[in-house]
TrEMBL record:
InterPro entries the record matches: Lipocalin-like
Membrane-crossing segments per the record: none
Signal recorded as keyword: yes
Protein name (Swiss-Prot/TrEMBL): Lipocalin-like domain-containing protein
Residue stretches making up the Lipocalin-like domain: 45-126
Keyword Signal: yes
Database matches in Pfam families: Lipocalin_4
Length: 139
C-alpha cells in the first residue's frame, strides 16, 4: 500500500469527513446507539460506505473512490481507513453517553469528532457538525 504524505493524509481525512458527513442509513434501527462492541465486533470490524446525504437529507451520488472506502475499527482503539490504494491509520475514542466518536489520524495535529446517530451490529451512521451524514454498513 502507498504511504500517505501529510498533505495527502489531510486530503484523505477531508474526503473521509465529507463522506462521513453525507451518508444516510435506512431501516428501523436508525437512531439506535448500542454498545461500543458493535463498532469493532470481537476484535475488529470493517465498515463500508452505504450512502451519503446532505444536511437537508438529499442523497449524494457516490464516486468510485467513495464506493471503495472502508474503515476498520479495532478493539484496541485504533482504526484504519482505506480508499483505493491510499490508507490512513489513527486512534479513536467512542463516548457512548455523548454519542460521539473522535478520530485522530496518526501524525495529525487535529482530531475530528462526529455524532453517532446509529450504531448497531450492521449499521453505523455518523453526523458531521454541518448536519451531513455518512451511513456505513458492516462489510
Amino acid at each position: 500500500m502507498k504511504v500517505l504524505t501529510s498533505s495527502s493524509s489531510r486530503l484523505l481525512t477531508g474526503l473521509f469527513m465529507f463522506v462521513l458527513l453525507f451518508t444516510a442509513a435506512c431501516g428501523s434501527k436508525e437512531g439506535k446507539v448500542e454498545g461500543v462492541n458493535m463498532l469493532y465486533g470481537t476484535n475488529s470490524k470493517t465498515w463500508k460506505t452505504d450512502k451519503e446525504t446532505t444536511a437537508a437529507g438529499d442523497k449524494i451520488k457516490q464516486t468510485d473512490a467513495m464506493d471503495d472506502q472502508r474503515v476498520t475499527f479495532f478493539a484496541n482503539g485504533q482504526y484504519n481507513m482505506s480508499s483505493g490504494a491510499q490508507t490512513m491509520n489513527g486512534k479513536y475514542t467512542f463516548d457512548q453517553g455523548a454519542k460521539t466518536i473522535t478520530m485522530m489520524p496518526d501524525g495529525a495535529g487535529t482530531s475530528n469528532t462526529f455524532t453517532v446517530v446509529t450504531l448497531t451490529d450492521d449499521k453505523l451512521t455518523l453526523k458531521g457538525t454541518d448536519g451531513t451524514e455518512l451511513h456505513l454498513e458492516d462489510e
